[in-house]
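lol ok so funny story. i was supposed to be doing the assay writeup but got distracted and ended up predicting the structure for this chain instead. priorities right. anyway since i did it might as well share w the group, maybe its usefull for someone
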Amino acid sequence: MPYDDDSVPPARRARRPLLVAAALAALCLTAVTGCGGGPDGAETGAASPRPGGDAASPSAAPTPSASPSAPTTPTPSVSASEPLPRGPLTGRTVVIDPGHNPRNREHTKEINQQVDIGTGRKECDTTGTSTNAGYAEARFTLDVSHRLRELLRAQGARVLLTQDDDRPFGPCIDERARIGNEAKADAVVSVHADGSAVGNRGFHVILPAAVKGGGADTTKIVRSSADLGARIAGHFVRATGSAPSNYIGGGTGLDTRDDLGGLNLSTVPKVFVECGNMRDPQDAALLTRASWRQKAAQGMADGIADYLKG
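and the output, tada:
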């Protein structure tokens, strides 16, 4: 769950009628189950607020002039001595952004500091959610990201991670975006799991809205990101058998946000994937299963490859 990085639906959300139609059409073409939605077939309401949400408040920590994260270099998926195999994605660069950091909980002061997201300020990062049994979202995202990295590498892609549990906290949301931008990535996927109410089930893909203000300008990546997101959604259905969210996206599995720094600050095609709801027992049973996580990684890899070869 991205918090800003988050996926708590804001009270007001950007609408993009033409973009929704285009993205939904792409989803319908790729998903074998069509666009009928989840088990309930319709949006049932917004996700419930979660601890650590990213809305600014008077009690928020003082705003620093720059990201509190220490400068970092994106974690390469291969060493300099290990050549990538040749494949259909040779020459392509993909950045995988595992949501949150397992040690964020030990650095609440640092992650609560606010950073610039172009159109405002938000917390550097959050701890993420967990299942009721204590399986942390940050552990889930790393596991799926490692699986996704190997699937993409096998096709020849150069893959970078924004973090690999190799730093004390973060990176902050602005730095996560910067890593993808500086890598000149052909695609960036931020991996998450939601923390909504029981009964809210299924996955959804968050797309960037058209945002222009401050240091944010997504106008050049809105359409390409929508294409990337729709292809991932369609292949995610095929690979996992999971239905699109029954509480966000009106059964399409697609949601557009204008309040996420990780999307607002991106200059390359980027989406967030909420793989399921960790707070729903049925979804949690899937998310905690290694075989399902492999299917989730496969669905994302297939969608990314479809986009890059399209």
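DSSP finds eight helices and eleven strands in the chain. Residues 148 and 297 are 5 Å apart (CA to CA).
back to the writeup now i swear
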